[in-house]
Specification:
Strand content: 15-25%
Radius of gyration: 14 Å
Strand order of the largest sheet: 1-2-5
Order of helices and strands: EEEEEH
Largest sheet: 3 strands, antiparallel
């Protein structure tokens, strides 16, 4: 008997990153795998992070705003 996989969820945080929870596989545009290092990752939405695709908090200083 195998365990049911944990569902993957994506939660957009107002004026912040996308929080992705669950088993995911991230890839570069060239198809190379990116290790998420944890079960919850914050993905940049402002485009200013120095560690893209991950969020580094730059959105706060930049005043990034979302409509959601």
């Amino acid at each position: 008997m195998s365990a049911t996989p944990e569902p993957t969820t994506i939660t957009p945080y107002p004026d912040g990153p996308l929080l992705v929870r669950g088993a995911i596989e991230l890839q570069t545009p060239d198809g190379e795998p990116l290790a998420p290092h944890r079960r919850t990752v914050a993905l940049c939405r402002c485009g200013l992070s120095a560690i893209k695709p991950f969020c580094d908090g730059t959105h706060k200083a930049a005043g990034f705003r979302t409509d959601d």
